Amino acid sequence: MPEVSSLTGRLLVATPALADPNFDRAVVLLLDHDEEGSLGVVLNRPTPVGVGDILASWAPLADAPGVVFQGGPVSLDSALGVAVVPGGLYREGGGPPVGSGARPGAADAEVAGEPAADTAEGGRSGDEPLGWRRVHGAIGLVDLEAPPELLAAVLGSLRIFAGYAGWGPGQLEDELVDGAWYVVDCEPGDISSPDPERLWRAVLRRQRSELAMVATYPDDPSLN
């Protein structure tokens, strides 16, 4: 297989042509992308379930609207935390990204039926706060088995996801060739958008290209 250029930390924005209802108008944050496949979470699928209903101790730290988000169609019974820690609290070149072979934190991986990350390889760097492992920039994964108090003073934002989106080796690359996704940069504020239902349009609208025009695409093209 040819070498895959990692898209870890970037956004996949569903094109209007993508027919899969699981990803209609979806904005996916890629947490892991390499030759072995890809893993991400959908940022704009809030559910009616409150964080306090499944993870009461983390509920005070979760950003509004304070609900669990459906991260994707895979392993909906697993929980995964994604948090932004403002710059200066980690080494930019610190611990390896998720794409180095580590998957969601130990608790999440075991629930999802995946091998837990090896501490020596996928653990935090010495400059990262306990309970948080950098994925890209200020974005990282939270160990939901750790005491929330470890991160309370440093978290900029926190989202809790049920399930995730996954692709096998080469599968995402094929979808990109087929025009299913736009690939754009992620901003830390995307993780905790106060209006997630409008995130698809907001991300496209800020692009300095023809993608900004796609933001005006009607929900039902037949009405255009």
Task: List the topology elements.
Blueprint: E1 11-14, E2 27-34, E3 37-42, E4 46-50, H1 51-54, E5 67-70, E6 74-84, H2 106-112, H3 119-122, E7 132-136, E8 139-142, E9 157-167, H4 171-177, E10 181-184, H5 188-191, H6 199-205, H7 211-214
Tell how many strands the DSSP assignment holds. 10
Annotated CATH topology: VC0467-like
Indicate the structural class: alpha+beta
CATH H-level superfamily: VC0467-like
Tally of domains: 1
Q: What is the overall silhouette?
A: globular
Secondary-structure element string: EEEEHEEHHEEEHEHHH
Radius of gyration, CA atoms, in whole angstroms? 17 Å
The amount of helix comes to: 10-25%
The first-level CATH class name: Alpha Beta
Name the CATH architecture: 3-Layer(aba) Sandwich
Low-confidence runs: 90-124
Largest sheet: 10 strands, mixed
Query: How many helices does DSSP assign?
Result: 7
Q: What fraction of residues sit in β-strands?
A: 25-35%
Protein name: UPF0301 protein EYS09_13505
Biased composition (Low complexity): 104-118
Family: Belongs to the UPF0301 (AlgH) family.
InterPro entries: AlgH-like (IPR003774)
